[in-house]
Amino acid sequence: MNDNLLAKLNVPKSTDDCESDIREIINVSRTAAYSSVNVLLVQRNWLIGKRIFEEAMKGNDRAQYGANIILRLSRSLSLEFGKGFGKTSLYQFYPFLKCILKFSNQRLENSQHF
User: Fold this and answer.
1) Cβ proximity of 59 and 65 under 8 Å
2) Which terminus of the chain, N or C, has fewer Cβ atoms within 10 Å?
């Protein structure tokens, strides 16, 4: 196996125990994959929340307009993508956006103090 790839995955060099080495490669790769997926899901949820917020701000009665957007999206996205895009999930993406923005602003403020 390419030593550069092993270094990226933090897999130790090969030993005399082939089976143990393969188990380690599987475990390290699995952990790296889970981490990558988690990062992508955070980004996806933030972007969905941002887009819902932008759309909701277009209406005059923003609360009702936002509720209608959520309902419409939950129906169409659930049909196309399955679980994970129901009303409850979509309602959670907006507070998620607010939380991420607050955290980012706090980090920015803290970095300016140093």
Assistant:
1) yes
2) C
DSSP 107: H
Sketch the domain layout of the chain as residue ranges.
21-112
Averaged confidence pLDDT in the chain:
78
Handedness of CA 63, 65, 68, 72 (dihedral sign): negative
Length of the chain: 114
Q: pLDDT tens across 51-102, in order?
A: 888 887 776 666 666 678 889 999 999 999 999 899 888 888 877 666 666 6
- Give the Cα separation of 28 and 7 in Å (integer): 11
pTM for this model (two decimals) = 0.63
pLDDT of residue 45: 86
* In 1-114, alpha helices (H): 3-9, 18-56, 62-81, 87-112
Tell me how far apart the alpha carbons of residues 106 and 114 are, in angstroms, rounded to a whole number. Answer: 13
- 70, 90 in Cβ contact below 8 A? yes
